Amino acid sequence: MPKVIVDGIEVDVPAGATVLQACEEAGKEIPRFCYHERLSIAGNCRMCLVEMEKAPKPIASCAFPAADGMVIKTDTPLVKKARNGVMEFLLANHPLDCPICDQGGECDLQDQAMAYGAGSSRFLENKRAVEDKYMGPLINTIMTRCIHCTRCIRFASEVAGVDDMGALYRGEHMEITTYLEGALASELSANVIDLCPVGALTSKPYAFEARPWELKKTQSVDVMDAVGSAIRVDSRGSEVMRVLPRLNEAVNEEWISDKTRYACDGLLRQRLDTPYVRKNGKLQPVDWPEALQTVAARLRSTKAEKIGAIVGDTVDVESMYALKSLLQGLGVTSLDCRQDGTKLTAGPRSGYVFNSTIAGIEEADFILLVGTNPRLEAPLVNARIRKRWLTGKLKVAAIGPVVDLTYPVTALGDSPALLADLIAGKSEISEALAKAERPMIILGQGALTRADGAAILAQARALTEKASLVRDGWNGFNVLHTAASRVGGLDIGFVPGAGGKDVAGILAAAEAGEIETVYLLAADEIDTDKLKNAFVIYQGHHGDQGAHVADVILPGAAYTEKEGIYVNTEGRVQLGRMAVFPPGDAREDWKILRALSEGLGKVLPFDTLAQLRQTLVAAYPVFAQVDHVEPAAWGAFGAEGSVDAAAFTYPISNFYMTDPISRASVTMAKCTEAFVLNSATEQTEKTGTHG
Amino acid sequence: MSGASVQKFEQPASFAFTPENKAKADKFIAKYPEGRQLSAVLPLLDLAQRQHDNWVPQAAMEHIAEILGVAPMRVMEVATFYTMFHLAPVGKHHLQLCTTTPCWLRGSDDVVSACRKKLGIDFGQVTADGQFSMVEVECLGACVNAPILQVNDDFYEDMDGDSTVTLLDQLARGEVPPAGSMIGRQTSAPDGGPTTLVKKAATKAGASDSDGAKV
Question: Do B81 and A169 touch (CB under 8 A)?
């Protein structure tokens, strides 16, 4: 533990820490551009200069290891003069276009120029100009503004694992670009926009939309996948302008996926903003009382066993709980939250959550992926695995089709039979698995949504027990979910009751006419063709698959428009916050269900969200602790059965369109075109400011 | 480099080392420890340039990246950093004319205008027959024998207008004139023979350190 004295303050820093970290420990702010704590050290911007006693000249604190007995000064005239000099050089070639720059107001260079800038320039020569580069439909480039900190290059090659960015030429001619100006093909690509300390890389969909000081900032959680990334929703008036990452070391560190960031423009399109009732075969706009009366009348007139309810992928726990309470009050048992047909059950919690936790990946030394492509299903889980792999202490094996996960994987094949080999200890990785100290198995929905999913789950449990993946202070059994609502749904037991049907059962029965009324709570990723014979009540926020077959539409709120609890794949309970109001006549979902219960004469026992949460916590104590993962006790789950020989497939083929919001998003459509269909039509597109 | 030719040219669709060069490349790679193959990128780029008419096409960078097991971008970064790698076609005889102060004082303007006149091209251009290309460079580090004209790997020194024309004629005929001084200077010795140490020291005692000063 080196002791360093910073401006007279003595601090202890861990061995291997840098002088900059020691200064931060002492509470001194060090200006920087190239240094980023999650990236490797480049030391090329020189902004972090500090004075070290006995050193002949200022040192770059970000790249200088802290040593015992060092005396550092950060506030001397020499330091100030040195940083002023660096700033003058940086500004020599930086254009004076802050008034038209999207980074304005949240620009590191702008902020630090306030402290270290000269106020006027001594540079009389021509400033350099650099041609803008194409980096895909998300990243807007104005390369003349670039100060060559190389953060974006380091992010792409280290965190994203896509070695496509680089710096060409040298000296004054240096240019940052992607290889042959291709789109940066990573699910995390847009994080370079946040990393860019200047306005060289800015957000393309958000270009010239708003200034940061006009925006209302709401701290919330993401629902585009089951990771539950911490996000900040920036809104102006009734419109969500953009979504940015928020720091959460346990989940997303400070990154978010491109879908999380950019699907928000889908919140403005295809919205259900008024109730509808189908009259004479056509959906007609009606007022709330009429819509609720129609639904209540229908639910009263249908026998309980002929009613089914399916919950979608992005629904908050409160709404699910309200719907469950309402329908159970009517005696309905055909409830299901497992829209994709996953064979997970509401049994012991350890059987359906990511027990090792996402941060726990950084302790793992062996990971077996079964039927999952984390790069598309949970890009941030994949980034964690890559982060661990970069330390050299992790080996990864996979059962499933071979895909590029940005780290090397021992591909065992794609047959489910390989699990039996593993249990028998006959697999090529059996030895590695047995030797590992912190082994993990990650079971994906590609393995669980099959007809034999329950048997595969049982085999995974058998393997977990056989290889003793659950040991002291470690649970190596993990289920990777793809839907933000799934774990919450399983937690409140939104699954078929006695004699009830599951999703496939409800759909089949609806087609056969055995189920007459189906309540869809924002459920769209199902085969809605089978619902044509049934009376469909759709409560949700987008005019997607579900709304097309609906007989009554109750317009609900999307995740940015309501307070709601979401449980991520780890079982972490998190709070989503309301950033804007739902559009038009749309209402928060639990309120709709509460109003409906009145019409049915079975009033739900809560009038406010606080009361709802109290009843929820009383019934399910797991929701009492927000942002906390309680280790779940091991138990029996899965069901013995024969395993089909058919190869595993992955649940997500198009990362950019997985739910009603992202399907309605123009940006996601452009991404689909550029990355999934591989047509870079936008490359030739120029805006009015291009020469 | 960034001053690459503005003339249009076609990139070849593919590139592969000849068996001899592949063997050389393997030798270069073997010099570095496992996992550090990227260190061999410079000699490999040089090999590629020598094999491919004195310039490195895109396909060669991709080929090298594949051999080294790195992303093509990493090879491209190196290739664009060094001015010695040509990323666009150059002439069979690539002329580099130094015009930095010592060469300029000693008459590099004559050399430049002789080249321009003789070849009909300017800096950054290639003759129509693909025989010559010329670029202006900063100091080549041989100021003692200025002006310098570098042809591919060789330095031709003590140039003037006439000797430049002669040299270009010889090159055009396919001859390879000996490199070095064009006025018969021995390496970088003084022009016209030695000027110091011409006579033996008179006596050992009392002789000053600098005999030359007494000559």
Answer: yes
Whether A479 shows a pLDDT value over 70: the answer reads yes
SS (H, E, C) B55-71: CCCHHHHHHHHHHHCCC
- Gap from A96 CA to chain B (nearest CA, Å): 25
Question: Secondary structure of A319-386 in the HEC alphabet?
Answer: HHHHHHHHHHHHCCCEEECCCCCCCCCCCCHHHCCECCCCHHHHHCCEEEEECCCHHHHCHHHHHHHH
Contact with chain B for residue A170, Cβ under 8 A: yes
Nearest Cα to A357, choosing from A249, A483, A467? A249
pLDDT digits (tens, 9 = 90+) for A633-684: 999 998 888 999 999 999 999 999 999 999 999 999 999 999 998 765 444 4
What is d(CA A245, CA A247) in angstroms, rounded to the nearest whole number?
A: 7
Task: Report pLDDT for A64.
Answer: 95
Chain A (249-308) residues lying within 8 Å, Cβ to Cβ, of chain B: none
Residue A163 at interface with chain B, using a CB cutoff of 8 Å: yes
Q: What residues of chain B lie within 8 A of the CB of A157, using their CB? A: 71
B74 neighbourhood in chain A, CB within 8 Å? 163, 166
The phi, psi pair for B134, rounded to 5°, reads -135, 145
Dist CA A363 CA A365 (whole Å): 7
B57 pLDDT above the threshold of 60: yes
CB pairs under 8 A between A and B: 31
- For residue A175, give how far its alpha carbon lies from the nearest alpha carbon of chain B (Å): 10
pTM for the full predicted model: 0.91
Indicate which of A128, A143, A163, A404 best probes the interface with B, i.e. most B CBs within 10 Å of its own CB.
Answer: A163
**Predicted confidence (pLDDT) per residue in A298-311, tens digit:** 999 999 999 999 99
Question: Does residue A159 surpass a pLDDT of 80?
Answer: yes
Going by the DSSP 8-state scheme, the letter that residue A158 receives in this structure is I
- Residue B189 confidence class, pLDDT cut points 50, 70, 90: confident
CA distances, A134 to each of A182, A314, A475, B6 (Å): 7, 33, 45, 21
Q: Is B1 on the interface with A (CB under 8 A)?
A: yes
Taking CB atoms and an 8 Å limit, are A170 and B74 in contact across chains?
no
Radius of gyration, alpha carbons of chain B: 22
pLDDT tier, B35 (very low <50, low <70, confident <90, very high otherwise): confident
Interface of B with A in 24-83 (CB under 8 A): 58, 70-74, 76-77, 80-81
Q: Using alpha carbons, select from A629, A378, A368 the residue that is nearest to residue A481.
A: A378
Backbone angles phi, psi at A44, to 5 degrees: -110, -5
**Angle between the N-to-C axes of helices A108-116 and A77-92, in degrees from 0 to 180, rounded to the nearest 10:** 130
